[in-house]
Amino acid sequence: MSLFKRLFGKNKNQEEKEQEALNPGQNSESLTSRSEEQANEVVLEEVESEDIETETDDFEELNIQEEDRLKSDEEIIPTIEAEEHVQVTENSEEVEQVLEVEKNLETELEEDVIDEKATEVTNEVPEKKGFIKRLFSGLSKTRDSILKGVDDVLSSFKHIDEELYEELEEALIMADFGVDTTLHIMEKLKGKVKEEKITDPSALKPALQEIITSLLTQQPTDDILNPNGPTVVLVIGVNGVGKTTSIGKMSHLFKTQHKKVLVAAADTFRAAAIEQLNVWTNRAGVEIIKHDEGSDAAAVVFDAISAAKSRKSDVLICDTAGRLQNKTNLMKELEKISRIIAREYPEAKKEILIVIDATTGQNAIQQVKLFKEVADISGIILTKLDGTAKGGAIVGIYESLKVPVKYIGVGEKIDDLQPFDAEAFAKALFAEEA
């Protein structure tokens, strides 16, 4: 019972006693009424007590449930955290991979931007030093083949005689100089020995180097580009020699020389040739004129000439088919393209360059001979020099065919195609790093 009720009840009893003293007749009724009230109060107290006990039990049960829940959470949370850690770890690895790719792309783009800015600021052709180093490295297999063969022969003889000449001749043929070129070199060597009275076999090595260098440097080195007007370059070559990539690299090279370049995708016969060329022109940052696969190649060249005139292009490079197995059709196609160039672009200087794979060695010379039958070839692009020991063929190509090497490639990068420098090539060929 609350304190208020007890106080209230006490005051009420005192009043009843006073009333009983004044009105004795009403005493029994008052007692009965009071008894009922007291009984009600007792019941009320019992109910309140039961409610309190019930609330206490409920509270204790809630506490127990809360403790159980906390224990359950303690058991579950580590598992969840472990799973989340694994997921976060996996996600982190994926994020790192993505970031690494993005970083590499950003680095490549930054390098390209830096190179372009450096070229713009200097307003000059990029330095040759880096390319000469790559040339020296790229000719390592050819150099080892030539020098090792010559050194092995010279170290085996104490006197210069016919047998020594025969061994040297074999070493040069093995380095893919070709039979005709080797015989020419040996003839010059014998004359030099006789003229200078050389008796020591070790003195033959610098003599050979001098003769081979002279053969390399006798090639004309004039630029294919017209200094006073536009230039049209027809590029021919069999499939697989690197014709498409050479066009892309050549476009990049001309662009570094501040020339406006346009490319015509006139090899409409070979599957995917147009798509491949489109990729390379995008890399070089030059425009391309193309039709659907199977279109008339001459029509592509006609549209390209119109575009070159309207856009005032300095160089128009035309990719052409390399169907050497069907020389008649190839000849007709090249003749038709040549007539269109002569009629529509008479002011342009015309060059026909054949792309040759250096790894084919003497077969490269044979390809040039066959293409010369269907086209007036003015120069050679020699690719893949870094992957062969047959670089000696470059000496024999001009010696036997009188077709000069205009460009050489010693790598996969877009700037790995450069104008042929005979002196630098000779130095790299004989281990004289520039």
Automatic annotation (TrEMBL):
GO terms for cellular component: cytoplasm; plasma membrane. Its EC number is 3.6.5.4. It catalyses: GTP + H2O = GDP + phosphate + H(+). Residues 1-56 are annotated as: Disordered. Residues 24-33 have a biased composition (Polar residues). Involved in targeting and insertion of nascent membrane proteins into the cytoplasmic membrane. Acts as a receptor for the complex formed by the signal recognition particle (SRP) and the ribosome-nascent chain (RNC). This is Signal recognition particle receptor FtsY. It comes from Candidatus Cellulosilyticum pullistercoris. The lineage of its organism: Bacteria, Bacillati, Bacillota, Clostridia, Lachnospirales.
